[in-house]
Automatic annotation (TrEMBL):
This is DHA2 family efflux MFS transporter permease subunit. Keywords: Cell membrane, Membrane, Transmembrane, Transmembrane helix, Transport. PANTHER family: LINCOMYCIN RESISTANCE PROTEIN LMRB, MAJOR FACILITATOR SUPERFAMILY MULTIDRUG TRANSPORTER MFSC. The lineage of its organism: Bacteria, Bacillati, Actinomycetota, Actinomycetes, Bifidobacteriales. It is a multi-pass membrane protein.
């Protein structure tokens, strides 16, 4: 699994390391914050478009071949971004990286369901969660140091090096544990998937720049209508692109919604925090990155711990612990002002990074554990699609809320960030409500 773990870590590292570089990109390419935000949302848009097709791809293509293809795409995208002369080329390379991550995420989880016995799925997901949850925290630290020492281009050079390592590990060690059934290709479903998810995420993302204008409303309407057609078709065709029967299993659907909300909360905070440190509290990128490091180390330990605790105690109690910690951390973030001491930020960041893994890992494991083996590949694709689409929407909403304040001043940027943090706490509240509907699988 080392190659897949490295590949997914690479994808999530790329997803969040850009947040701290956005001010530099805005200055170098003379673009607005809404345009620069596409480095984050465009990446997630590419992930959301390709993710629903991965379960089907795994039924046709050897998992090892698909993983190597994805990693080579990521390497190519990183090289393009490193040398990009303008913002459109930079964004194109970035979206190629998103396609790669969209393939790697469900491939990793589908492989976990085949490689590990049921009583070790929690621990295996703990390691997988380490690659996913540690990256959003270590990413800004590495990015800040690289920007301080070199420039934002060094971030993509670093990603290219990690991609080469992931390719070597995958080629050397990964096997193909997923059987190929080669079902019929349903072209209408492929088109509907790309159009539906693409329009939905693009529409939400453009609200921050264009408001609820006619083009934005049109994109949202097309996205919803096409996705409704897509979902109906998956239940009626003989060989669906994505088998949605997993959504009829409450023990899967409830934790899937919960993990999506917690993931959106994480991305919203990781989008706001490094920018608030720079534009709200006046710190340079290297200092902002270093301040995010302590919580990253603690987050890694808690992610591994949560995976092991799930195998012993199940999900519900771990979710409650995580919710309490996330609420405390979010409240502390709201209390941060322009003149707040660094200790307050460190405390808030550490507390919330303790809470999120207990929610994320327990709900992820509960969702996967509830599925029969024949739905493992499709179920992991559904789970990851939900996370990425909801995460993209959550980041876009956080951007809109940030724009409600006057972000040209430090005090205004802090105020706008508070609106985003309040939105994150609302997502945590949804997780708490969902926890009462969790059904623990048989041990």
């Amino acid at each position: 699994m080392s190659g897949l773990y490295a590949g997914v870590f690479l994808g999530m590292l790329s997803e969040t390391s850009m947040n701290i570089a956005l001010p530099d990109l805005m200055q170098e390419f003379s673009v607005t914050s809404g345009t620069a935000q596409w480095m984050v949302v465009g990446y997630m848009l590419a992930i959301g478009v390709v993710l629903p097709c991965v379960g089907f791809m795994l039924k046709w293509v050897r998992a090892k071949t698909l993983a190597l293809f994805a990693l080579i795409c990521f390497l190519a995208g990183a090289i393009v971004c490193t040398i990009a002369p303008n913002f459109p080329i930079l964004l194109a390379g970035r979206m190629v990286q998103g396609v790669s991550t969209g393939i790697m995420l469900p491939t990793m989880y589908a492989a976990i369901m085949r490689v590990f016995p049921p009583h070790k799925i929690g621990a295996a997901n703990g390691v997988a969660g380490l690659t996913i949850m540690f990256a959003p925290v270590i990413g800004p630290t590495l990015a800040g140091l690289l920007i301080g020492a070199f420039s934002w281009r060094a971030i993509f050079a670093m990603l290219a090096v990690v991609a080469a390592v992931a390719i070597a590990l995958t080629a050397a060690f990964f096997v193909t544990p997923i059987e190929r059934t080669r079902p019929a290709v349903d072209i209408p479903s492929i088109i509907a998937s790309a159009v539906g998810f693409g329009c939905l995420v693009a529409g939400v993302s453009l609200i921050s720049d264009m408001g609820f204008s006619v083009p934005v409303i049109g994109l949202l309407a097309v996205g919803v209508i096409v996705l409704a057609f897509y979902a109906r078709r998956q239940f009626t065709v003989a060989d669906p692109l994505l088998d949605l029967k997993a959504l009829r299993i409450p023990a899967f659907t409830v934790p899937a919604v919960m993990v999506s909300c917690s993931f959106a909360c994480t991305l919203a905070f990781m989008y706001l925090v490094p920018q608030e440190l720079q534009r709200g509290l006046g710190m340079d990128s290297a200092t902002a990155g270093l301040l995010m490091l302590p919580a990253g180390v603690i987050n890694a330990l808690c992610t591994l711990l949560a995976g092991h605790l799930y195998d012993k105690y199940g999900a519900k109690r771990l979710v409650w612990i995580g919710v309490v910690m996330a609420v405390i951390g979010g409240a502390l973030f709201i209390a941060i002002g322009v003149g707040s001491p660094v200790a307050l930020f460190l405390t808030a960041h550490i507390v919330i990074m303790v809470g999120i893994p207990f929610i994320q890992q327990s709900t992820q494991s509960a969702a996967l554990h509830s599925l029969p083996r024949e739905l493992a590949a499709d179920g992991s694709t559904i789970l990851n699609t939900m996370q990425q689409v909801v995460g993209a929407i959550g980041t876009a909403i956080a951007t809109c809320l940030l724009g409600l304040a006057d972000t040209s001043t430090q005090a205004g940027f802090v105020t706008g960030s508070r609106y985003g943090y309040a939105f994150g706490l609302a997502l945590v509240a949804l997780v708490l409500i969902g926890s009462f509907g969790l059904r623990e699988p048989r041990r």
